[in-house]
Write a structure and sequence with these properties.
Elements lengths: L2 E6 L3 H14 L3 E6 L2 H9 L6 E4 L8 H10 L8 E5 L4 H10 L2 E4 L4 H14 L1
Parallel strand pairs: 1-2, 1-3, 3-4, 4-5
Length: about 120
């Protein structure tokens, strides 16, 4: 069964590393990357709905917090699990991310651990 993952991160290196790392670990992963919150919302509006969104918090334009709020406000999107994947690891951000999202993973991270945590969130879904 294909697992569609959408990565939303303004750092192209992170997108590349996570996409190729996850797809190498599991052939069922189909990873799409966008570099802004606005592009994420565009894909969702086009009904390109992933099984899970990996969402950076600190991005120019629309922040990860704003993207997550829009996702949860839309009845067609709110069931999509959101995992925050961010360099912002201060106490307030971590607690907010754990409360608002389905998981909160700080950068740097190891791809096998990321995959394990994604799988755990998808199993709950």
């Amino acid at each position: 069964m294909t697992k569609k993952i959408l990565i939303v991160d303004d750092e192209s290196g992170v997108n590349y590393t996570v996409k190729h790392g996850l797809e190498a670990l599991d052939k069922e992963y189909q990873v799409t990357c966008v570099e802004s919150g606005e592009k994420c919302i565009e894909l969702l509006e086009q009904n390109q709905l992933p099984d899970l969104i990996l969402l950076d918090v600190m991005m120019p334009g629309m922040t990860g917090w704003e993207v997550q709020k829009k996702i949860k406000e839309n009845k067609n999107w709110r069931q999509i699990p959101v995992v925050f994947l961010t360099a912002r690891t201060d106490y307030v951000a971590k607690r907010a991310g754990e409360f608002l999202g389905d998981d909160y993973i700080g950068k740097p991270f190891k791809i096998p651990e990321l995959k394990q945590r994604i799988d755990k969130v998808l199993q709950k879904k």
